[in-house]
Amino acid sequence: xxxxxxxxxxxxxxxxxxxxxxxxxxxxxxxxxxxxxxxxxxxxxxxxxxxxxxxxxxxxxxxxxxxxxxxxxxxxxxxxxxxxxxxxxxxxxxxxxxxxxxxxxxxxxxxxxxxxxxxxxxxxxxxxxxxxxxxxxxxxxxxxxxxxxxxxxxxxxxxxxxxxxxxxxxxxxxxxxxxxxxxxxxxxxxxxxxxxxxxxxxxxxxxxxxxxxxxxxxxxxxxxxxxxxxxxxxxxxxxxxxxxxxxxxxxxxxxxxxxxxxxxxxxxxxxxxxxxxxxxxxxxxxxxxxxxxxxxxxxxxxxxxxxxxxxxxxxxxxxxxxxxxxxxxxxxxxxxxxxxxxxxxxxxxxxxxxxxxxxxxxxxxxxxxxxxxxxxxxxxxxxxxxxxxxxxxxxxxxxxxxxxxxxxxxxxxxxxxxxxx
Length: 421
Description:
This protein has 421 residues and is mostly helical. The protein is built from 22 helices and no strands. The protein has two domains: 10-217, Serine Threonine Protein Phosphatase 5, Tetratricopeptide repeat (Alpha Horseshoe), CATH 1.25.40; 253-418, Serine Threonine Protein Phosphatase 5, Tetratricopeptide repeat. Helix content is 72%, strand content 0%.
């Protein structure tokens, strides 16, 4: 089975996760101080009048004219520290409105230096200014500059989600995928430790970023988290595809992956069903093969070619043969010291939705003992309980399932699949 991965480009996911950045930029832009007065500082008319005019032009969205008016004030050589501070604040508002990241950065640094002499800025205003400058860089697609300023914003104490998201995205879009991945992991870990559900967009970004870094273990962990918190057909397909691709997954467990995929409704391609049918048929589970074939045909994915029609007739013939020989096969299996044959008869009955008798045979087979791969049998008993709608018994059975080569993953995934919504 070759599950298809529907990868979305990392840059696209980042953009989709930040559709409200424009709003963030607007809300993050600190208002310029009124040019008319200050509690303990004053503006001379030579400064106050052009600044007031510049501010009116800015409020009328005439940013170019406001910038030109400000240049007359900026050219004055004898401004006081406070006059320079107010001028820089209004100039910063204009630069931010024009998405002039470099200009905004220069003005913000000037404001911070001037503030050291007068302490006019409140701590939260400093954070807001840094955030606004970072967003200006982001909107101008200067992601490296955005990352630097948003790092400063976080280091200054901001815990706002908008800062966090823009900071992560800036690092990713600037090409610093490693740092962006670290920040994503930190954010997700913090949410989990606080007993909160991590955001889906963050988990998706983490999965894509770790894929880009070729971190297979990290990507698997991320897609597993998506299945845990946001189970969907696509997420199940991706996590099962990764399990399917494991080099150490033995042939004997491949059919078990198909069964879980069917249970989670992760099968939706013709090859999914045709390969499942092939595995079940070769393993001797004819009823299961026929049921899966008919389900794929009902979805319009298989069953229309002459080869498929012949296969369907052969499966029906084999199922009928198994039905006729069932009593003799059961008697023979019951006489054997090992429970393997009895167990397989039970699986066939479960596939045919004869749950009461099928589960009884499975339980008796395990009690009798299965010498080869007994943990596999416990896993399949749990899956049979799940198919019969007996989730509590399935979870209880899964608690005794542990092993390598994909057994641990199958047991864990079945537990997630059995969770009540």
